[in-house]
Amino acid sequence: MPFGLSLTFATRFAAVEMNWRMDPLLTSVYTPEARPTFITWKGYQRRSEVLAPLLDADVLFFPHVFRSKVLRPLDYLLKFIRTTVYLIRVRPPLVILQAPPLFAALAAILTKTRYIVDVHNALIQSFWLNVPLTRTFIRHATALIAHNVAMEAIVKETFPGSRAITISDPLSLISGGSISRRDRDILVICSFDYDEPITLLLDVVMALPEFTFTITADIQRLPRKLRRAFVACSNVRLTGFLSTAAYHSVLCSSKVAVVLTTLPDVQPSGACEALASNTPLIVTRSPMTEALFGEWATLADNSIESLVNAIRSVKDDPLVLDAYRDRWNEAVMRGIADLNALLSIG
Question: For residues 160-177, b (16+ Cβ closer than 10 Å) or e, as one string?
């Protein structure tokens, strides 16, 4: 192994070891008052953060140790070890596992911990469903949480007899305070994931040089050619991951948020953030987005012409979406009540 690579490994493992020693969650021990835990194998996921309190659960994030996808299996192994140590030491009565990935379910099974799977679209609609043991882990779950009724129907069709319940992302007001919206700033809410039309986004950026596009996704996730193309655009601001406060500031100061997907049954988290912050929204047109956001958002086709026209047509009038948020959250609480009833008899 080259010295530089071995030094990187040594540094990373030293950091991991130090994190394990200092992590208050992993050094805590069982108490009779131990609560359920929402476990997410990412550095951050807003859904986990906002849903956990409503489930009376703690939230635990496991960020990637290695950036390289080549080392992702090793990364998952380290997370599996940390998850297992946590379950042995703390012994929560229940864990909610965000998936994909779903390898944390093996830790739950080995430690005889009851678990629920928070089913993100990629678990059912991509290669993850065919990863060894994934279907077994899903069948062993006490319950499955879907993000919308369309995904709930897909889950039940894929796994007949499964106990799936819809709980959308809870919404609380994201207030910008005295922040004013900038009429030339566009926030693109994305993660450069498999369902996002990245090349189309680049074409739209290049077609609208009069606007500044802020992108918080990790540019390193893109192939080199696309990465260089975005960096070369003078009207693109690549911030990388932002703190919650900084991100909310960008969200509340942008003229409009743009959220794009190529899948028909996706409930985009970015669209929920726009709803939470009274931010004008342009979102890919689909039966799902029309049902969820069509009363107040701008629906656009995934084409340059449609998106360019949508951005240029956004009005500067302030939005007040309190009634939509109230209606949304009432549905969330009904889903949580249904989940609690299921757990009480399961």
Answer: eebbbbbbbbbbeebebe
Nearest residue to 79 (alpha-carbon basis) of 61, 100, 99, 62: 62
3-state secondary structure of 187: strand
CA distance 123 to 131: 10
> Which pLDDT tens digit goes with each residue over 172-200?
899 888 889 999 999 999 989 888 999 99
Token reading at 18: 């130090």
**Is the distance from CB of 168 to CB of 335 less than 8 angstroms?**
yes
Residues 294 and 195: their CA atoms lie apart, in Å, by 21
Q: Are 113 and 85 in contact (CB under 8 A)?
A: no
Peptide bond into 100 cis (omega under 30): yes
Pairwise CA distance, residues 136 & 5, whole Å? 36
β-pairing, 281-284 with 254-259? parallel
Number of Cβ within a 10 Å radius of residue 327: 10
For residue range 210-252, what is the model confidence (pLDDT) as tens digits?
A: 999 999 999 998 999 999 999 999 999 999 888 889 999 999 9
Query: In the block, which residue shows the tokens 């059912």?
Result: 124
3-state SS class at 192: coil
277-to-89, 250, 281, 327 alpha-carbon distances in Å = 39, 11, 10, 15
Rounded CA-CA distance 60/95 in Å is 10
Spacing of C-alpha 112 from chain mean position: 27
Contact 78, 65 (CB under 8 A): yes
Give 273: exposed, middle or buried? Use CB within 10 Å, 0-12, 13-18, 19+. Answer: buried
Instruction: Give the residue among 103, 86, 64, 54 at the shortest CA–CA distance from 338.
Output: 54
* Beta-sheet strand order (sheet of 281-284): 236-238, 212-215, 182-188, 254-259, 281-284, 298-300
Q: What is the pLDDT of residues 295-315, one digit of tens each?
A: 999 999 999 999 999 999 999
- HSE-up (13 A, CA, CB side) for residue 305: 0
